Protein 1
Amino acid sequence: MNIYRGCIFPDDLLYDVAQDVWVRYQDGVATMGMTDPAQSRCGKFVAVQFRTVGRVIAKGKVYATVESGKWVGPFPAVLTGEIIETNEAGFQRDILLANRDPYGAGWLVKIRPTKWEEERANLLDAAAAFQEYRKKIEALDLNCMRCMD
């Protein structure tokens, strides 16, 4: 695991640095969420609106809309695929899931990718992503923080 200015980057994930999305691919399913720098910049979540399970979302579209105290915006589709599960119930129980645990309980969607081999090439492994994020974090003068109980 790499850590820079409080921002954590687990080694077992793939990253889309430009979109601030992490991907955990296992057994044909891609679980995705916001990176630690993204949740830190976003601030405390106040609402998440998910697209419907069963819907096929094309890369470049939106899996969910996230609202925080200072921002409303898309959780972007970095892979094309069918939404097979959302973390809607988790966020209903604790809206700060992604702020507390962005790479664990704070995941947003699970999809069955339909263009994995093609689109996987656009994702960076943890080592490459960490190098890109160090530059991004410096440019933004960002320090990551997570919400505590």
Protein 2
Amino acid sequence: MSGSGKGGNNRKNRHRFSGRRDETQKHDFKKQTDNPLTGGKIEKTRAQHEQSRWTAPVLPANPITTPDCPWCGKPIKDIATAISDKDTGSPVHFDCVLARIGEMEALETGDSVCYIGGGRFGIIHYNNPPDTRDFTIKKVFEWEVKDNISEWRKPISEYFSIT
């Protein structure tokens, strides 16, 4: 590298690293510092520098149940990804809802069923299917009401809200 200073290596008083630090670079855990608020000197010890140890949160006593999906009959292994049935409120597979909406609606070329948030699904039309940035929402399905919390979600929320 040239010594013109354009390479970003132009700091003054730069020392080569020889494998040992000199006394000014050592991190001393016990040093005297002036505190302008108290007017005196405060001694910092190693105990003040150490962070408290992490303790695992206590899990709730009731285990998470794995109910069966009423639409396909298979167990819902990941209950956190389940969604409420529109009619009964029981948990169903997320993929089962996508498949059911896809069967109910006539999808054209470039259309797909997507979750658009807030308990809603939509039929999305991609103008150029390889480029998923350019799309329009053709139809919206209000699947879950945001204000209604299903009973089956309450014990699950205890596991996700422990920290």
Protein 3
Amino acid sequence: MADLPPEGLSQTRFGCRYYIPEIHTIFDVVDMRRKSGELWGELTIRCNLEGVRGQLDGNRLRQGNFNFSSVTARQSWAKALEAMAPPELNKRLEWGNLLEHVSQAVLDHERTGSIRGGVITGKRMNGGGRPWAAWPILPHHENATLFSRGGAGKTAFVATTVLGLGLGQSLTPGVRIDRPYRVAYLDWETNVETAEDLWGLIAETAKVAVPPTIWYEPMEGSLERSLPLVSNILDKHRADLVVIDSVGMALLSSGDFSDPSESIIRAYQSLRRLETWGLLIDHVSSGDLHGGKPAVKAYGSIYRMNLARHALALHIGDRAGDTKHAYLVCPKTNMGRDEWAMAGTFVRSDSELRWEFGEPDFDLYDRLMNGDEEEEESEARATPRMADRILSYLLSCFPRGATTADIARQLHTTAGMARNRLNRLASDQLTVIVERQGQENVWALTQEGINLAQTVNASPAEGAD
């Protein structure tokens, strides 16, 4: 038997395995569960001794649900196994004693568990910080979630990122990828033909070839009930991480549980059982579909945000031709500073598909989450007298004028909010005359700040033009 396990009992991804090298026999146990106080599991017995022939195929002698707590079950299986071996071998095999020994070992293992930890040494990451698979989208060896309304381009954005991960280089300005990864893309949303066309368009735009480091798998059942399949995919492809597109389709039905949060909890538990990590694509509630602001959380249980180490919202704004304004908003992260946003563009046509983003910007986050009011026209303009009072305060702080950033620091607010206040105080053409020390200073109050427009000799001034 190839890839023989260690002798005795060993932990597997979904259960345990008992190997007896003297008789070339393996007992594989998966799907262990307690039922009415008894331990059940799916048991597969394989034997490579000459003369032993399985009734199923080759060396597989017997497979089925087995009650490890039942003496009767051990006796029944022992009789069935004796019929598959020559009489002279049965004395050597002693199936009854073997099943007794294996059952006790499995019961002890289930009771005590398998210890995988160790003593913490305090070893730091390279450079003292958390590494990233794709900065600032996906932390290395951590789970991240990306959500937005339908049609915002989640799949296209993730596919572009994954193609870059497979190549070990970024295909999106503003996203950094330092090394190649092997990715398993688990797709519950579309089909192979659609995926081929999308990935082909991205590759043509970037003038690269799709590498063999990306495995695409169309999925049907829930993630939890597809664990053996996904495990085989990860092993076959030697995948570093997975992409789940999308979370809603990958979950068990919430009707199966009394607590609606249990389905997403089980999904993350499944990733731990698979000993993998990756990026989960999710949707938002119906109330977020047509709003002008980005969604602040994924649809459903708050656990969808809490269980992810890093959460991002993709927001698409206005369009100019085939180009859309795109925003990545980070409402929650365990990887650094909370609440940032990146602005960029998204271009998609029949011949190209590309993204571009800038550096994280808290002011942008503030404007996105609170509304871009500074860009909206307002009928409630300030009177010159009111503007004069505001200017008198600001000019006492900035006698030579000030930018929006200067004012924001003085007022302990963001540049976006300062610009909003300036816009409400005056239109771009409004000037305010302030008399100081025998001179009239004509100041223009604009969205960009306060500018000294003109200095003239003193004369009585009633207000502003």
Protein 4
Amino acid sequence: MEKADLFGIGEFAKKAAVTGRTLRYYDRIGLLKPSSTDAFGRRYYSREDFAKLQKILTLKFIGLSLNEISDIIKYDVSESGFRKSLEIQREIIGKKIHHMKMVANAIDEALAVQEARDAVDWDKIINIINVVNMDNNWMKQYENASNLRARISIHELYSTNKHGWMPWFFEQLDIPNDSKILELGCGDGSLWAKNIYKVPKGWDITLTDFSQGMLKDAERLLGKDAHRFNFNVVDAQSIPYENESFDVVIANHMLYHVPDMDKAFSEIYRVLRHKGQFFASTVGRSHMAGMRNIIAMFEPDIVNSATFSHTERFQLESGIGMVSKWFKNVEIKRYQDSLKVTDAGALIDYMFSMPGNIKETMTVDKLKAMVKYLNDIIKSEGAIRIGKDTGFFHGIKF
């Protein structure tokens, strides 16, 4: 990089509205290293460093500590991910704004009671404390948003089948117009958000998830169409609805997370009406095997951990017997697809998004070696090719 394209620490600090002392401190702790230094030790920063500093300052504003920010920054391997980073930051800031409004409303309630009674309502004060402490682990919020974005992005950007899993799966749901539908483990509601214009007005849809946070994400994603859905926190092992309440139950890539699947199947069977339909999607044994092989080259112990075996409890190969135990006329349909990845950073983001401790286990040196290996494949072969195996079971209750 030409020196003319760089900024001295004074100019960079002035443009970024931070102090030189802050930049020197960030350099010392390894949070933001200058792009170059000269023979006299003078620091020079590039335009890309403004984006890195923006991310640091925004994460600090959200509520993350410098140590937490450092853990995030040191695993940034792709300079092309600025847009994704900004989208995640915006999402978390939106959640923080919502949280702050809730705190403000709780304070307003306490003030209103005090003015009316001329006395402190201690229950209202306790309520303020509870609201302040609600969902304020911003590091966890950031990680969850980042992980979800990584999983979605790699499939949207690099899948060879451009139709997309969610539209394809939705098209397989042959459901009458006046049906009552239950989705278990709806996540962020992507199945419905991506197909909202195809959802019949006669469907009565209840979206459930074990996580209240995921349901809030689903409501946000559905936006102005959220009123068309019912939302409820539900454990699939204990579904809080009466017998034969639904015409259709959908479990989209979630059953392998359920501790007691027999209980879940029993509950699903119970709430389905006679001749009700059950749709359960999952992956096959070979799904993303190419990615596992790459990780095994650098972290072989991780591949043998529960992180990489959790789907084995309910896969396309093993799930057929479980579904057939409860439902009749069970069939499997597979979605033909694979990945053709041209950005090493996107694949590593996906690896880090998986359950477990891959990020914590992998050292920075191993990460650099993996990045080099992946970039060498992209340079020589044009892309990293990874096979996928995804599909669903369809059964009928008789």
